[in-house]
């Protein structure tokens, strides 16, 4: 199955949900290439960016599960080419 690279942007406005966010990310850990978190303490929120390599269904599942949590927003940006297509270009 073809995989894609995607960036999942997560805004955590309900800090009580941080443990649930981390649990979901742990469940999808084998697909995560990199993660960066930025605490915005004066506004009591966290911004997390996740780079993943997976098939579309897996990426959509990750983003959907995160977005269903109260006080959590998640949006995904996909690479235009699949990983197999990227390798063919080099």
From TrEMBL:
InterPro entries linked to this entry: Acetolactate_synth/TF_NikR_C, ACT-like_dom_sf, FeFe-hyd_TM1266
One Pfam family this sequence matches: TM1266-like
NCBIfam families: hyd_TM1266
Protein name as annotated: Putative iron-only hydrogenase system regulator
Organism: Anaerocolumna jejuensis DSM 15929
